[in-house]
Write a structure and sequence with these properties.
Two copies of one chain form a homodimer.
Chain A: H1 8-18, E1 22-26, H2 41-52, E2 58-61, H3 63-67, H4 70-84, E3 89-96, H5 100-113, E4 118-121, H6 127-130, E5 139-145, H7 165-173, E6 182-186, H8 191-200, E7 205-208, H9 218-225, E8 232-236, H10 238-241, H11 249-270
Parallel strand pairs in A: 1-2, 1-8, 2-3, 3-4, 4-5, 5-6, 6-7, 7-8
Helix pairs in contact in A: 2-4, 2-11, 8-9, 9-11
């Protein structure tokens, strides 16, 4: 990694340059690789990255998929992150969080060992579990309202102070950092809540999973969630990685990313970013 | 791993045999290794395991500490788990949890690749994120009320139904499995809450971190939390691993484990287990 800081103005500049809000999720799974790559996960990732470099602002390797391959998977994860380089935000989608001395070790793993720029963090254990991830020039991306059905189980429970749990978590955790180092995960499956969160947090970037395979509406989420700096990282994983299972998989990934970027364009024009 | 199931009756039998409730946390950090092991984390772990095999019922490798060492760390984690064998419960202290297709990959990593018997899971994302960890013969250990100061930030918030969040999480998640496959994490720093949880959940095992370095009172927690089957796995990490920084570190670890076991003894006698 070079010394280029992937800070907030880097993100807005990158959105302008690529005319994209896209984050490509690297949830690579052996069983879905095209036969043409002959089971070589790293080659597959490199081909996807090369095909989408100009189409996206961020990459988000999903740690579970690499851990499922054991030690070799961790090595592929390291090599994939190195290959991305320093021209994109690299998000460790790891959903970590533990007591202070343990979160410090996770931060060491993700930021120093692997060279990621950002990490998704689970806030359930509270402030002292999240603090160790606030390191200079790094982003902490706090799970607020996730895209899955289970987001209704606890995240949307009402507290005695009238707030929903995810709102309380956003209100409290926003005080741990600033819009320059903190983002929130908000699922594309909750557009009206995203709109309310944008009003409450006008300056924060939101990481939006749940378009594509999970069914969230991309136009609705752009309407609801963008701000003057762009303000959204919209993730797509399976719809890009597995756009084709033939030898044209990389070109198909590029086409799918371009198709999404065409959908972003009027929204970026609306705010004058392109 | 052999086919021996580390089920609930295995645990109670193991408690009887070892006269112990101890889980040894393998939070091994390079900078605290005795100079006599010359930076060899795996040798250190093996020596600790050999010295404490007869003194404990479970081992709990803390994944953060191995991830902080990169690919080599993952390899040491694999070898450590293999070395423990099948006579103890092996808990992956990984605090994982993500949408279904991702939790399935974490379960693959921890249960199939690494051969652990149990995993600590963060319930914030709800039922569909926890379900994939329920595999035959495996334990799901759900974070309820953790030992750290941040447990007050969200876990102890009152919901509009009058329950505290961690109580609601226990009530709801207890319906996802049974006392045969589900445990809860309850911090030793909250003895009165542990007592109330024991009344509400008479049959579940609780994993108790927070004695030793974190200051929880071992006697108070045994009084509050045991049931007729034992019912507690009491974790100690740093106080055992680093009982001595000299070449006698393994013997010192055994001595520290024995000292804790002496404290368990009257409680095990009280319930007639020894």
């Amino acid at each position: 990694m070079s010394d280029t800081t992937r800070n907030k103005s880097f993100l807005t500049e990158k959105i302008r340059e690529t005319q994209s809000l896209l984050c490509v999720g690297l949830d690579t799974v052996m069983s879905r690789l095209p036969s043409s790559v002959q089971g070589d996960v790293l080659s597959f990732n490199k081909a996807i990255i090369d095909a989408t470099r100009e189409d996206c602002i961020a990459y988000k390797p999903n740690f579970a998929f690499y851990e499922a391959m054991g030690t070799e998977g961790w090595s592929i994860l390291e090599a994939t992150i190195r290959y991305i380089g320093d021209q994109h935000l690299i998000i460790a989608d790891a959903k970590r969080g533990d007591i202070g001395n343990t979160s410090r070790m996770y931060a060491e793993a993700v930021f120093h060992r692997l060279g990621c720029d950002a990490i998704t963090v689970n806030p359930y254990m509270g402030e002292d579990c999240v603090r160790p991830f606030y390191l200079d020039g790094k982003w902490v991306i706090i799970l607020a309202l996730t895209s899955n059905a289970g987001s209704h189980d606890f995240q949307k429970q009402t507290l005695s102070n009238g707030q929903l749990l995810y709102q309380e978590i956003m209100n409290v955790s926003a005080t741990w950092g600033s819009a320059e180092d903190t983002m929130f995960v908000l699922g594309a499956t909750h557009p009206s809540e995203v709109e309310a969160c944008r009003k409450a947090f006008p300056d924060h970037f939101f990481l939006i999973p749940g378009v594509g395979a999970q069914g969230g509406d991309l136009n609705a989420i752009c309407e609801a969630g963008m701000n003057q700096q762009g303000g959204l990282l919209i993730n797509a994983s399976r719809s890009i990685l597995y756009a084709s299972d033939g030898p044209d998989f990389a070109e198909a990934a590029h086409q799918e990313a371009s198709r999404m970027n065409q959908q972003f364009k009027p929204h970026l024009q609306r705010i004058g970013l392109v």
